[in-house]
Amino acid sequence: xxQLRKDPVVGRWVIISTDRAKRPTPREHKRNSPRNGPxxxxxxxxxxxxxxxxxxxxxxxSRESPGWTLRVVPNKFPALMIExxxxxxxxxVYDLMNGVGAHEVVVETPNHETNMGALSEKQxxxxxxxxxxxxxxxxxxxxxxYVLIFKNQGSEAGATMEHTHSQLIALPIVPRTVTDELVGAxxxxxxxxxxxxxxxxxxxxxxxxxxxxxxxNFAVICPFASRFPFETWxxxxxxxxxxxxxSKQEYVDLSRSLRETLIRLNGSLNDPPFNYIVHxxxxxxxxxxxxxxxxxxxxxxxxVAGFEWGTxxxxxxxxxxxxxxxxxxxxx
Length: 332
Fold this sequence. Notes:
Layout: E1 3-6, E2 13-16, E3 54-57, E4 68-74, E5 89-91, E6 94-98, E7 102-107, H1 121-138, E8 146-153, E9 165-171, H2 176-192, H3 196-207, E10 211-214, E11 218-221, E12 232-236, H4 248-269, E13 274-279, E14 294-299, H5 306-311, H6 320-328
Helix pairs in contact: 1-4
C-alpha cells in the first residue's frame, strides 16, 4: 500500500509508492522507432491493460475488444490504490495516511503512430468529455477531494509510454500548489471583489501583446510572468470554477483551442516534449466567484536546476511577448 506523508515544516504531502519503480524505463520517444514488445495501448492489445473503466466505442463492439476510439483504464503501476481506507494517523511529529486514491490512463487514440497534434477536433472533444465523465464519477467517492488531470508527452516531460495518452489521479488531499493558487485568487477577490483570472482575460484581450488566439469562449495567452519558455494558458472567458461544469459548446471551443495551441507549439518548436495540466476547484470548495478553472501547457525546453529548487524562482530566457508572437505566426 502506498503512503501519503506530510512534511512537518512546509506542510507539503509526498507519495511514497514503491510500485512506481516497476514502470517501463523512459526512453526517447520516436514514433517510427522499433518497440520492445507489443504496445498495451494499441487497438487489439486490450488484454495487456487492466480491465477498462470506460470507453467510447462503435455500436456493437464489446468491452475489452477492438472498436474503440478512446479508452480509460487503471494505471498498471498506480501512484495510489483505489482499495482501502485512509487511516489518517500520527507518528510523533509526523502525519501520514494510506495512499488511497485513483490513478487512471486516458488512451486518446487506438493508433500508435498518431501524435496528439495530429488528432482531429472531434477526437479532442472526446478527450475532454472523458475527463469530465471521470471527474463526475470520481467525485462521488467521499474519500477524494481533488482530481488532477495531466498529460506528459515525450520522455523529457516524464512519459514512459510513447503511445499518446493522458492521466488523472484522484487525491484524498488538496495539493499544496493548488492551495497556494486558491489562496492567491481568494485574496485578490477579497480586495477587489473580482476574479483575478477574469481580470487577466480582459486585460490580455485588450492589450493583445501576449494573446496567442481566441474564440467565442476561450482566450489563449502566454502569461505575463511565464515560468518557462512558451508557457501557455487556455482561459475560459465565462467565469466558472469547475472544469466539469463547462457547457457542450465550451467543450467544442476548448477542443479547438487546445488543438490549435499544440499545433502552434509543434510548428514553432519542432514537436517539443510538453506537459499540460487542468486546474480546477477542489470538490468540497464552494463556487463563490474567486477561482477560475483553466489549462496550463508547458513545453520542456529548459531544466529546473539548483537555483530554481533553492529559491522557487524560475529563469525564463524567452519573454511571453516574443513567445506569443512566434505562436501567432504559425499557420494552421
